[in-house]
Amino acid sequence: MNIVPIAFCFDSNWILAAGVCITSLLENANEDTFYDIYILYGDESKEKITKSNLDKLVDKYQNCNITFRSVGNTFDKAFEIRGITNSTYYRLLIPEIVPEYDKIMYHDVDVIFREDLSDIFFQTDLTGYYVAGVSSPGSLNPTVRNHREEMGLAWNEYILAGDIIFNSELIRKDNIVQKFKQEVEVSTYEHQDMDIINVVCKGKIKRLSPSFCTTLEIFRLATYKEEQALYSQDELQRALRSGIIHYNGPKPWVTWCLNYDIWWEYYRKSIFYDDKFYFEYYADKYSADEKIEIKRLIKLLLKKIIRKY
Known about the structure:
2 domains, globular
């Protein structure tokens, strides 16, 4: 049996997303993979998360265990921006909050898994590295690149923080969590925990294939096969076929977006499936599309009338 430890961190606003995310993880597990799942939450979300029925996934799937861990009120006064709450910082505590493992994955919950994770977990050698992740495609933008270089970071080594693997043993040995906390205390970083991970772990970050965190921009690069210096075309095509889908932009349970249909496929398989919510979502979006089409028809008619007269 291959035991893969995974941590998720979120507040009560993300329970539905977490249920669907974890469902996709377990649906795509190999027969010999066992996921030891840890859910980190803050004091303000304790009751809703611990009573959310997420633990009932263990009844449906025999290849997992779910443990809830509180981070207390840590980061309650931490810097927030763009509507992202302080729960985004919880991942920085994982090596201390989950001391059972010397190596552990972290994933955001606006994610859908499409394949088993045991190969990448066991094949990623983190000797001498604090963390492994996917190079950020944002660095291909000259303005973003300059900003990251002004922070003293190599633009092509800056990683995304939504899907990462921690070398918890080395992080604990070098007291890196304390350094994370110190950065949070003075932080006004635009990208919060992601900037902090890159700043603190600079020089000890390992690059992973883009399939480990396939964002909207990575899907675009894979689709149009643009020339760029971060990923090979082979890596991008694999990400397109079976990579972890990270909905880092619009959320599929809120609106139409790229790969929304894949998210809803796993929603229908999840313990949170609700006929009424499912119907109302699609009825609402269909109605909105009808209104858009009517507006388009009116505009076309007006253009014809204007041309005629």
